[in-house]
Design a protein that fits this description.
This protein is mainly alpha-helical. It is built from 5 helices and no strands. The radius of gyration is 23 Å and the shape is rod-shaped.
């Protein structure tokens, strides 16, 4: 018997924040993990190999969930700090520039310039967060592909012939764990702006 994979939840974000396709990706990834587990159970693998493979798949599901939660935190932070996205931030930057040009008081010009620099820094951080989210999405897709490959290998291979699949899945899992840590650091940095 193979241990149960924790089900990936539906969006844990407030409904006012677009999930950016995460729910569909998670559903698809969960299906891949479940299918791989079913293929493992139906195969003629040794019980030890089957248990090890199922354990890897359980780790995948747990890691995908952590990445999803981190991505949700990033999306919420972006929604709070820049509710209108980059377009609204760019409009705000333009308005500050115009205000600075119209200001006749030197102190006001300095304050407006300082505010503009802060907004420019925020814009760069938002761009970086969006890139991080895309990297996390690509990592989850890679893990999904590894689970699908495991399903195919489990359907055709006999016991003891799956080490490359386990290695591939372990590498994807390690990459995802790195993405979680990077995303948390970037999220923390944004919140402190």
């Amino acid at each position: 018997p193979v241990e149960e994979t924790p089900a990936l939840p539906h969006s844990q974000e407030p409904s006012t924040i677009d999930d950016g396709g995460w729910n569909e990706l998670l559903r698809s990834c969960q299906e891949s993990v479940d299918s791989a587990k079913a293929a493992i159970e139906a195969s003629e693998m040794s019980p030890d190999v089957a248990v090890e493979m199922a354990g890897q798949l359980t780790e995948v599901a747990e890691t995908v969930l952590r990445v999803r939660q981190t991505a949700g935190s990033i999306r919420r932070a972006i929604a709070e700090v820049a509710p209108g996205g980059l377009e609204a931030l760019d409009a705000e930057l333009l308005a500050l520039e115009e205000r600075g040009q119209k200001a006749t008081d030197e102190r006001l010009q300095k304050i407006v310039l300082a505010n503009r620099r802060l907004l420019e820094a925020r814009r760069e951080k938002l761009l970086a967060l969006e890139a991080e989210e895309e990297r996390m999405r690509a990592s989850i897709t890679g893990v999904q592909l590894a689970a699908q490959n495991m399903q195919l290998d489990a359907a055709r291979l006999r016991a003891g012939q799956v080490p490359e699949v386990m290695t591939s899945l372990s590498e994807s899992l390690e990459q995802l764990n790195q993405e979680v840590e990077i995303a948390r650091q970037v999220e923390s940095e944004l919140v402190n702006v």
